[in-house]
Amino acid sequence: MTVDARPADELLTALHAEHADALRRYVLHLTADRALAEDVVQETLVRAWQRPAVLEREPDAARAWLFTVARNLVVDDARSARRRREVGSDDPVEEVQPDRTDAVLDGIVVADALAGLSPEHRRVVVDAYWLGHTVPEIARRHGIPEGTAKSRLHYGLRALRLALQERGVTR
User: Fold this and answer.
1) Which letter, b or e, does each residue of 55-81 get, where b requires 16 or more Cβ atoms within 10 Å of its Cβ?
2) pLDDT at position 143, please?
3) Which residues form the RNA polymerase sigma-70 region domain (predicted)?
4) Which of 27, 73, 135, 161 is surrounded by the most beta carbons within 10 Å?
5) What is the per-residue pLDDT across 126-149, written as a single tens digit (0 to 9) for each?
6) How high is the mean pLDDT of the chain?
7) Which CATH class is domain 8-85?
8) Domain boundaries 109-166, corresponding CATH code
9) Tens of pLDDT along 145-169?
10) Does the pLDDT value for residue 11 go beyond 80?
């Protein structure tokens, strides 16, 4: 074993320059995956950098150590659960779905606020805003005068606004 007086970064640079291309070809031959080969070479050189004693070895011993580490990384990747359960694809995702978390949470808050209304007010508000009925249609559906339907809608919306304010949704 020879001890080189150069700093570790210089030794690693020299090790990379001397062995990286051959190491990349070796791993590419084992995996047939260019991206994986790049990752394995990078991880192998990081491990060499973390062990300064490797950098100070004779060139043939350092090369053997690098190829052994690379082969072990390839074997570990092949045995990993990720490799056995995940299937990569170059095809784009067919349809991207937007995140609906905020809409779901808003729906829960509104449903909770609606539950706090009287049944008469809740029915009129739901008929008007979720079912899209007009005041005359609501009056006919529930057998009440139009003025009563309009009044229930007004007071129901006011109570709903207060309930949402209590939950911190509106000002």
Assistant:
1) bbbeeeebbebbbebbeebbeebeeee
2) 95
3) 17-84, 113-161
4) 27
5) 999 999 999 999 999 999 999 999
6) 85
7) mainly alpha
8) 1.10.10.10
9) 999 999 999 999 999 999 998 888 8
10) no
pLDDT at 106: 86
The CATH 1.10.10.10 domain(s) of the chain lie at 109-166
pTM over 0.85? The answer is no
Task: Look up tokens 């739901």; give the residue.
Answer: 126
Q: Are 164 and 109 in contact (CB under 8 A)?
A: yes
